[in-house]
Amino acid sequence: MPATGLRSATRTAVALAALAAVLLGSMALLGASRAEAKPAGVPGIDVSGWQENVDWQEAWDTGARFAYVKATEGTGFTNSYFAQQYNGAYDAGLIRGAYHFARPDVGGGAAQADYFADNGGGWTADGKTLPPLLDVEYNPNGEACYNRSQGEMRQWIRDFSERLHDRTGRWPMIYTTTDWWKTCTGNSAEFADDHPLFIARYSDSVGELPAGWGSYTIWQYADSGPMPGDQNTFNGSMDQLRALALGDAAREPEPEPSPEPSPEPEPEPSPEPEPSPEPEPSPEPEPEPSPEPEPSPEPAPDADDQRDDATEQSAPDATEPESSEPESSEARPESNSDMARSDLDDDAAGGMMNAGADDPTVGGGTDQQAADQQAATDQPAKEAGASEYGELAATGTDQDLARTAVFAAAMVVLGLIVLTLTRAPARR
């Protein structure tokens, strides 16, 4: 081979190797981006007849800690893999629950709630069973809102919810998309207080929620991933997930606080006794004058002289002692006193876990209505999945568009390099 041809071949090989390296790097970058987009919380999945016999040990090993399993659809369809999936999840240690795919076009809400409760939609307070789930979303076989007005749709959901609550003791969780909820219920907020929200949105963020719900309970963020089935996350801890499964049984009544004993009043001090008054001293008796001896007889004086003598000889006056009364002080008793918490890209969100009429398994139901549902469910699942999830791929995220633009620019540069190298004259 001439030297010129050898050099050209070498340059071409180098350019192709560089191109391959760029391609591999871009793929790794995009893959890392999607891995980083995995939301926080407790991982979980949902499955239907499309997943058939699920390897539940693999589901556990890849991180799944809870699962929802499709039980029924309308009033004539049951998932023929329900027992294997529902019991298998339990045996592998997952907290599991059952869901019903709503078909307001083929029956009333109360009738479908009874059908669901009779075919796997029950609930027990064992700490391993999630509340029953109502999957209400775009009609896979016809008009988006099943030919019902917004008021009629709200009433249908209300009838289903109340009957299921009567049958199971739990209000159902509601699976939906924000776009469908706005379109078909008028963005009603009446169910937010009692019904946990299972939101579907295939994006890096959960986006806007339906009216009334301040937060979601479970988010379905992708239709595939490392775990079998649709990829979900519970918005909380494992202990909170167990509490959701227990329901009211998790709320033990708080003991009533014992009344605090009232403090006993301190006894008031008794007043000090008043001092007894001191007795008044008795007055000393006056001394009686002692009689004088009679004088010897003398010659009788005149009468006037006798009177003067008698006056001079009278006894001295006795001085009476002063009586003193003791001062009495009255004691004053002391007084003591006691002190006593962006619009949502819902078009990107597909149907529930390849659910709806796309499910390949058809259960009992002999009436014309069941036959219609069976015909609808026999449609190829992949077509429905491609229709729904194709819209997801069309939207993408700003982050993926940016990476794609960088990738395209790199390709152009590499193409120019290859063109330059192949056309450059060989050195002699």
Quickly give the CATH architecture of the domain at 44-246.
Alpha-Beta Barrel
Structural class: alpha/beta
What's the count of strands? 9
How many helices? 11
User: Main beta sheet: strand number and arrangement?
Assistant: 8 strands, mixed, barrel
Provide the CATH top-level class of the domain at 44-246.
Alpha Beta
Going by CATH, the homologous superfamily of the domain at 44-246 would be Glycosidases
In which range does the helix fraction lie?
25-40%
First-residue to last-residue Cα separation? 15 Å
Give an overview in words:
There is one protein chain. It contains eleven helices and nine strands. It has helices spanning 3-36, 56-61, 82-91, 109-118, 150-168, 178-185, 238-246, 303-312, 368-377, 381-395, 398-423; strands at 42-47, 66-73, 77-78, 95-101, 133-135, 173-176, 197-200, 218-222, 230-234. It has an eight-stranded mixed beta barrel with strand order 1-2-4-5-6-7-8-9, surrounded by four helices.
Features:
37% helix; TIM Barrel; 428 residues; 9 strands; alpha/beta; single chain
Q: How is this structure best summarized?
A:
This protein has 428 residues and is α/β, with parallel strands linked by helices. It is built from 11 helices and 9 strands.
Q: Which helices and strands appear, and what pairs or packs with what?
A:
Elements: H1 3-36, E1 42-47, H2 56-61, E2 66-73, E3 77-78, H3 82-91, E4 95-101, H4 109-118, E5 133-135, H5 150-168, E6 173-176, H6 178-185, E7 197-200, E8 218-222, E9 230-234, H7 238-246, H8 303-312, H9 368-377, H10 381-395, H11 398-423
Parallel strand pairs: 1-2, 2-4, 4-5, 5-6, 6-7, 7-8
Antiparallel strand pairs: 1-9, 2-3, 8-9
Helix pairs in contact: 1-11, 4-5
